[in-house]
């Protein structure tokens, strides 16, 4: 059984909702799941101005936690077409693991959210790949492994790079049924890949 950590940063909760489906899929495929969040770096004053609700109740991930997992799925919203600074700050703290190559060979995937349909879901993953590459972490794409990714009859976030949700500029759109199903399928397929790698 592979132990997978689902590690998120979420300001308004959409990523956390997607994570629930990712976790469901991981468990369906027999993975043991650890659920963590990335530490906030903004002050309470700024968060209040951004109308951010209180954080979810998951433990804050530390670099020391990472070697305990066989693989990771990171979920975070797009900020200016890329990863939030909070995610970079976390990876900036993993230099010790980089130096000892502690994460090399472990698999990782991404899921994400944007305000708008073309706000940068794919760009967010593409520009986050160096976090993985420098650690020697193996990037696991989702591919077109769920039929809803090819459904253009309604708005469906996500792509070959992972599950995604489109939340509107004011956050009023919640993850749709199709987006949640894609997230669950990503969790399930990631667990199968991680299990194979962990067995070696
Ligand atoms: C500072 C900032 C920058 C953002 N940049 C983008 C962006 O480049 N493209 C986009 O579509 N949405 C952008 N958004 C909207 C967020 O992606 C959206 O709030 C997020 O996906 C909601 O996820 P959450 O509820 O898990 O925090 C931005 C939001 C903030 C606060």
Automatic annotation (TrEMBL):
Identify the species of origin: Coemansia biformis
Name the domain of life this protein comes from.
Eukaryota
- Annotated protein name in UniProt: Flavodoxin-like domain-containing protein
Q: Name one GO cellular component term.
A: membrane
Taxonomic classification: Eukaryota, Fungi, Fungi incertae sedis, Zoopagomycota, Kickxellomycotina
Q: Which residues form the Flavodoxin-like domain?
A: 4-190
GO molecular function per UniProt: FMN binding; NAD(P)H dehydrogenase (quinone) activity
Entries under SUPFAM superfamilies matching the protein: Flavoproteins (SSF52218)
A Pfam match: FMN_red
Tell me the Gene3D superfamilies matching this sequence.
3.40.50.360
**UniProt record similarity statement:** Belongs to the WrbA family.
């Amino acid at each position: 059984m592979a132990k997978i950590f689902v590690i998120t940063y979420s300001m308004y909760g959409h990523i956390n909702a997607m994570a629930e489906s990712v976790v469901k899929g991981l468990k369906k495929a027999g993975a043991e799941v650890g659920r963590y969040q990335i530490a906030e770096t903004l002050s309470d004053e700024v968060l209040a101005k951004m109308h951010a609700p209180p954080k979810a109740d998951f433990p804050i991930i530390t670099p020391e936690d990472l070697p305990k997992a066989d693989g990771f799925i990171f979920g975070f919203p797009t900020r200016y077409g890329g990863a939030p600074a909070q995610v970079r700050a976390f990876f900036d703290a993993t230099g010790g693991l980089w130096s000892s190559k502690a994460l090399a060979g472990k698999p990782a995937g991404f899921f994400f959210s944007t305000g708008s349909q073309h706000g940068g879901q794919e760009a967010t993953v593409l520009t986050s790949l160096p976090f993985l590459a420098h650690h020697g972490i193996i990037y696991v794409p989702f591919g077109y492994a769920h039929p809803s990714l090819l459904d253009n009859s309604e708005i469906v976030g996500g792509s070959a790079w992972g599950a995604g949700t489109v939340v509107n500029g004011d956050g009023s759109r919640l993850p749709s049924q199709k987006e949640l199903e894609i997230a669950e399928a990503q969790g399930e397929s990631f667990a199968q890949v991680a299990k194979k790698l962990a067995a070696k």
